[in-house]
Design goal:
Elements (H helix, E strand, L loop, with lengths): L1 E7 L16 E8 L3 E2 L2 E10 L1 H18 L4 E7 L1 E4 L3 E9 L2 H18 L2 E8 L3 H5 L8 E3 L1 H11 L5 E3 L14 E2 L9 E2 L3 E5 L6 E8 L13 E5 L10 E5 L3 E4 L2 E4 L8 E2 L10 E3 L7 H9 L6 E3 L4 E6 L3 E2 L10 E2 L2 H10 L6 E5 L3 H10 L6 E5 L10 H7 L3 E7 L8 E5 L2 E6 L3 H20 L8 E5 L3 E2 L7 E10 L2 E6 L16 E5 L5 E2 L4 E6 L4
Bound molecules: adenosine monophosphate and magnesium ion.
Length: 538
């Protein structure tokens, strides 16, 4: 079958050379821009495309569909840019042996076009003069980008946020921004590491007279004479140098004396400075404060560490169908799971977002976006990110002065993704489907949080091994496959989880990783080396 695809910014001529076929039927279709959009009169529609990929996808789509609907030749021309009312945005010509086959292929192609091909209506241009209609967006057109490109972009548009000093009690999960050094030797004095009896190293006697008792916290320097010992508790400061502590299990106490039953070369002392010397760096810039690290800071008296402030986050979940999870949905409604997902995801960084739930109403969403004035660092909008009639996210962000950098990704799940920026505020328009939400949060929003935090970033993707076959199908798009991972004999082993649609939720119950499946990978057998991103803050 002969297939010709063309994306053009030029007018599609009235007369087209139909696809060549010596016999049989030809059907031609022209999609002409109508003078109305969403009930409003318009002058033109602006189409945008990620051209190389759109051409590839259309080619792939026709090849796939013609397996069931055999045809001889197909020709598609899609116009992008501003297409005035009355002019064609698309021309499709199909040649087949029989008329019915040509119609069937045309209908199937037009049905799948919107869903599968990265071409979308960027905006409708109203009846106002062109200058007025076009001004609100000082926009670079956000193109379709791969996951890798989006990650790179996020790294570029986010800068580490300002710092603040906070108490250790609130510092878990924060990133330190100045290196922390030991102010004095650690430990600061020789300490007994056991409960026992301190004797002189050079004293080989087997019986000693107990002359004192030292408990943890005591400070009683003294010189021991041959034949003398002091009882000392774990953590107690030794009374002088050149001593050894014989464990209490190795002596027999008889009144005020001890008989040493066993004695070896173990001194049972934690010596001054053996853990860290004064001035030694204990934590470097960019380290995330784990509970262990906080304990370390407390031990050296660093009680107000300098850390990155938390980003201020506004999350707006949109949709007429969503309602709070504690309510029972009526037919057609669903529980809002994304708000809980987003809150828990951000909670891993200690961030508590300001959250709203609003109907699919441009006015309401608009006022939420506008309320995200200068104070908000991160604006998350759930739902409405795709190109459906009621998907306002992109337009509203543009109207509010955001520059849209990304409006679609080539990865799945999570194709309709918007990344936009206004000054220091970064907005993500996340697709409403929960699995897509999960993927976009864990890939892109995570990258933003890590960059803002100023933390030493680990690589976005690590390498592991599949514990089971991964049946990816022959998908033309890069896929992030939910999986659960665990460390086994030093290897990250990934078990792919079952999912079919980005609306599926069950995989979320155990997903803690996303396996990166390259476009067209088909089947990856158990044991394959794969890249994966962790879907948990570590
Ligand atoms: P949208 O991105 O708004 O087109 O939504 C895509 C799909 O995700 C639809 O099936 C929505 O019902 C669903 N969805 C949208 N928002 C939520 C949410 N907050 N919780 C669960 N599902 C949602
Ligand atoms: Mg919606």
């Amino acid at each position: 079958m002969e297939i010709k695809i063309q994306i053009t910014t030029q007018r599609i001529a009235e007369q087209q050379q139909p696809p060549a076929a010596s016999l049989g039927a030809r059907v031609e279709f022209r999609g002409v821009v109508r003078g109305e959009e969403d009930g409003q009169p318009i002058r033109a529609l602006e189409y945008e495309a990620y051209s190389p990929m759109a051409e590839r996808e259309m080619h792939r789509l026709i090849t796939e569909l013609s397996a069931a609907k055999p045809c001889l030749a197909a020709r598609v021309i899609h116009r992008v840019g501003i297409v005035p009312v009355g002019e064609a945005a698309i021309y499709v010509g199909i040649a087949a042996k029989h008329r019915a086959e040509a119609f069937a292929l045309l209908a199937a192609f037009m049905n799948r076009l919107k869903q599968d091909v990265p071409i979308w209506k960027r905006r409708a241009i109203g009846e106002a003069p062109e200058s007025e209609a076009a001004t609100p967006c000082a926009v670079q057109s956000g193109a379709v980008q791969s996951a890798g490109e989006v990650l790179k972009l996020v790294g570029e548009i986010c800068r580490p946020l300002e710092t603040e000093r906070i108490s250790l009690a609130c510092a878990a999960g924060r990133v330190v921004r100045e290196s922390v050094c030991a102010r004095e030797d650690q430990p600061a004095f020789d300490r007994s590491s056991v409960d026992g009896y301190a004797v002189r190293l050079d004293d080989t006697a087997t019986e000693f007279h107990i002359v004192d008792e030292l408990r943890a916290g005591d400070w009683k320097p003294r010189r021991l004479q041959p034949g003398e010992t002091v009882r000392i508790a774990t953590g107690g400061a030794l009374p002088r140098e050149k001593l050894q502590v014989v464990m209490k299990e190795d002596v027999r106490v008889e009144g005020g004396t001890i008989a040493v039953l066993r004695r070896n070369h173990e001194r049972n002392i934690r010596f001054r400075g053996e853990d860290a010397k004064a001035g030694q760096e204990l934590l470097g810039v960019g380290v995330v404060l784990t509970h262990g690290a906080l304990g370390l800071l407390a031990s050296v008296g660093c009680v107000q560490p300098l850390v990155t402030r938390l980003p201020r986050v506004l999350h707006v979940a949109t949709g007429n169908e969503i309602l709070p999870p504690e309510q029972t949905p009526k037919s057609g409604q669903i529980r809002d799971s994304n708000s809980t997902l987003v809150r828990a995801f951000l909670g891993q960084w200690g961030i508590t977002p300001d959250q709203r739930r609003v109907a699919e109403d441009a006015g309401q969403i608009n006022s939420e976006i506008r309320s995200a004035k200068s104070g908000v660092d991160l604006l998350l909008l759930s739902g409405g990110a795709s190109v459906g009639e009621h998907d306002f996210t992109r337009r509203l962000l543009e109207e509010a002065g955001f520059i849209v950098h990304v409006s679609k990704t080539s990865a799945r799940p999570g194709k309709p993704l918007i990344v936009a920026q206004r000054g220091e505020t970064v907005a993500f328009g996340l697709p409403g489907n929960p699995l897509a939400h999960f993927v976009c949060l864990n890939l892109y929003v995570r990258a933003a949080l890590e960059t803002w935090g100023g933390q030493t970033r680990r690589t976005d993707f690590e390498v592991g091994e599949l514990a089971e076959d991964l049946l990816a199908g022959d998908n033309a798009r890069e896929t992030f496959w939910p999986a659960s991972w665990q460390l086994l004999n030093g290897k990250a082993m990934l078990t792919p989880l079952r999912w079919q649609s980005s609306g599926d939720l069950t995989a979320l119950g155990s997903a803690n990783a996303l396996v990166r499946v390259t476009a067209g990978a088909g089947q990856l057998p158990r044991g394959s080396r794969v890249e994966f991103a962790r879907a948990e803050r570590t």
